[in-house]
Amino acid sequence: MVSIEGSPSYPGSSYIDTPPPSSARISRSMGRSMRTVRSKIFQTEFANDSCATPRNSSCSFDLEDFLGMSGSYSDLYCSSDISAELRQLATAPDHGIHFEPEPSSEFLQRERLYSEIIASVATEFFQPTVKICVDELQSTSPVVKRSAAGKLRLLAKSRSDNRALIGDSGAIPALIPLLICSDPASQEQAATALLNLSLHERNRPLITNAGAVKSLIHALKTGTAVSKQNAACALLNLAQSDETKLSIGACGAIPPLVSLLVSGSSRGKKDALATLYKLCSVRLNKQRAVRAGAVRALVAEKDRGLAEKIMAVLSSLSGTELGRKAIVEEGGIAALLEAIESGTDKGKEFAVWTLLQLCRDNADNIGFVLREWGIPPPLLTLSLKGTSKAKNKAKVLIRYLKEPELEASSSSDP
């Protein structure tokens, strides 16, 4: 058997101290890390979700719109193992809790070496190690449980076969209590381990059925920055069906996601946007998001690097009357026109689509736009120089805006 730990052996176990030669690498199913697959997650989601459609109109917004979003949108979401978390854990403060010395401190300081070992060894050799970790998660020692969660997290980082092995081992129910424990470092390790495990499709029902959703939401509300980000991404991975999306929304995930969007780091904001977008593909969650203040947070966000993603989420929320009303009340029309003027091509498409939904069959919104901007010059420019989809939407919108003028002109004729 192979251990991933360089510290003293556990009873009944044997370990290797050096990685096998590179020439002896064993063929296995590597799987993909979250860093590799996050773009696939969004491509799949954008390809399958229906876009917000105006009342009684067909959705002409080809979901290639979402597939083609900028690389930065799909390339910066939901990384498992960010910010050298093992090194953070090795030096984490005890938060007033005095633990016995960590038995696997060398493990925490040798991530690169153990990653090479993990990549070089057949999965079956890890079975005893995984079992030991599952047993350690039942320990009364917080530091032993934290260390076990860290080992499982690393094992699940980039190999799908390891994720399957860990899922089958019974580790998932044992990790969940750490999400609500009082030690932030343990919570962080558990959230990241579950994120990594959620990349394996077969593990997702195991995670949800074990009751992880409410505990992940607890970590999303109370955890460190990394815990919040990775809890959000784990929820993103679990939200594969409308039923699960509704369940996650009903458990209260949307308000803390909005809070993460408001006060999180740049990375946290991106993760919040991604998860909100996915959850809001179902109508009830759109309404929950609007009531939680999502529109206000989206309109107020000034990070230009997030503008395209914000337009995508606003476009989704505008699929309900409640969302359209909130966008107008929160000053969203000005934000949409700004995106039409200076956003990316995709951002312009999302913005003009949303503005079209606001103005379709709504004389009040048309009148507001005309009073404040007339026929907005950026909209005229877009109708001539935008992408084909943006031009088509802009031309329809301009026609809507001109109809009241034509009616007024005809009514004044003798």
Automatic annotation (TrEMBL):
<keyword id="KW-0833">Ubl conjugation pathway</keyword>
<dbReference type="InterPro" id="IPR000225">
    <property type="entry name" value="Armadillo"/>
</dbReference>
<dbReference type="Pfam" id="PF25598">
    <property type="entry name" value="ARM_PUB"/>
</dbReference>
<feature type="domain" description="U-box">
    <location>
        <begin position="146"/>
        <end position="400"/>
    </location>
</feature>
<feature type="region of interest" description="Disordered">
    <location>
        <begin position="1"/>
        <end position="32"/>
    </location>
</feature>
<keyword id="KW-0677">Repeat</keyword>
<feature type="repeat" description="ARM">
    <location>
        <begin position="170"/>
        <end position="212"/>
    </location>
</feature>
<dbReference type="InterPro" id="IPR011989">
    <property type="entry name" value="ARM-like"/>
</dbReference>
<dbReference type="InterPro" id="IPR058678">
    <property type="entry name" value="ARM_PUB"/>
</dbReference>
<protein>
    <submittedName>
        <fullName>U-box domain-containing protein 4-like</fullName>
    </submittedName>
</protein>
<dbReference type="InterPro" id="IPR016024">
    <property type="entry name" value="ARM-type_fold"/>
</dbReference>
